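Sample entry (647 residues):
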Amino acid sequence: MVLRKHELEAKLKDDMELVKSGVLRDDNPLDLSNEFNELLQACRRGDLKRTQELISAGVNINGKDEFDYTPLIIASLCGHYELVELLLESGALAERDTFQGERCIYNALNDKIRSLLLKYDYSKSTDPLQPWAAHISSLLTRETPKTSDITLVAGSKSFELHKFLLSARSPYFRRKLTEAPETETWKLPQSKPIESFEVVLRYLYLGDIPRDLVDVRSSSTEDDVLTGVDKISKQLEVDHLWEAILSGGDRRLARQRHQDEVNRAQEQVQGFFQDNVLGNKIVVDSRKVHDVKWPHDNSIFADCLLRADEAGSDEDDSDEQEESGGIPIGPGVESSKQNGAKKYRKSTLYPAHKAMLIRSPYFETMFSGPFREAQASEHLHIIKIDCLPEVLEIILAFLYTEKVECPLELGLDLLYISDMLFLDKLKTKAAVAISTLGSGNNNVLIDRTHNYEGEDDAVEVEVEPINVYDVIHAAWDLRVQRLEEFAARYLAYRLEYYIDEEEFTELIQESASRLKTREETDTIELLDDIRYYLSERFRLRFEDAGLDEMMDDDDETSKKIDEALLTSQVNNLSISEDNVNGTAEADNTKAVSSAKADVAESTTGPVGVVRTLDGKLVEDEFASDAINYQILLQKIDQMLEKLKLDA
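Predicted structure, serialized as tokens:
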């Protein structure tokens, strides 16, 4: 252990020297901004919702404070497993051979978090763009489905490439191809070695630069190849190619250079996507979609059109859906009328590139098989995706750039369409957005109006843009364990607002029926999870207050709690026996009422009056929680008795 500590200290010293010299970039730069400090505080609290919001806002999750603490170290040190998982999925560094990575692993609060950290290897934790970059690289050699639209010929060798990618990555290609978008073949000058073109093209397609630039069977020398690379890179205006070649001898430096280039390529493709795909979308009447004719030789090199319709329907919907073969993700929406006249919905068409769409196995199969969309046509095929335009834009942004910004209100729609398109990573991101922004264990926003027993007015509360019943059904339909756990936790932390609803009862009954061969005393999975999180919700307070004994479920303990609270209230009321016995009935009632008013007034100071779910007044929140816990358990038992279920 001492030896390991010395090794870490030595490595830290070496890394600091390389960073100071400018050779290496600090993976964990010092960040003293207010936003980063807020992220650290959210990680200490285990606030999933706020952490997700700050990550989406662009706060650096790999920064460090003045004490060298990163968000991942704090989350693992404080034992917030789900938060650690969120940070890792978002690209937090956890590489073992770095000082901060080792520190994070050894400081983890428990083995569960430590195992999670060890499971995330380099490619998964430090390079969230790795799958995107790997897809771009694969396009250079992919043969099926055919997505290339230009051939570069160098002597006896040819390269099948993609106009949109060349245009995004090279200003030279952008100018030339914009002037002549119909170009299908480009002859390269024979004055430069073929190996030079191969190096440049691998670089443009985010491939690794080979250590041996010259094949043993080639007639060119390494100097000839390097000279050719220099001339080609200047002509194509590719500025950072030499940095990648020179850093090939140092693994960490080469990795850092490659990450920089991937980030640069992502920004370039994102710019192309914003300007050309989203910038050239068109909105038309849904009845006239098939009148749209886009030529193949268009200036943005699109080779298909994706269609998404706004909410609503018209008389032609059934015929259009049959022709287009849309992806069914739910029932249709009734037609709408405005001022007595039928309002026809609009459709949005997005010009897209098959090379990026095939990141989805759904599109890959479509463009590879005998389907209509894979056949040659006079104009671009229109492919209908049965989702809202806003959702389709999120999907396209992910396919083109790997970036996802999912508003909570679109989370379920994105979840379903991601499942239909077999985009597991996007599906996971949608589930994360729902489970974190839905504030599963932050009892702040409730999506119900309720009233306590004995109160006349309902208490209006803020409405979250999420329906937990829809979430649990989506979790069951799509087999998303994360959302099942979230929904159970969400319900447990708000059970008093749901327990009396008929829809909640039906949900429990449905959960019981999901076990096809269920015996009379078998478990009900959803109810078990709710009970677990309900116990967690109250026990967190009781453990600190030493009130664990009040958590017993039996009736005798419930009676003792009521008796203890009753005694406490009587003592606080300070009503003497002599006063009660020596007063007439009317005066007695008046005295008791006055005494209760005095108690209410006296407890509105530091402690205040606390009301339980059944409307009783108690002296503090701990007593209230103890009674509320018993009340909720009793209501669960009553519901099971009503359903004739035993669990």
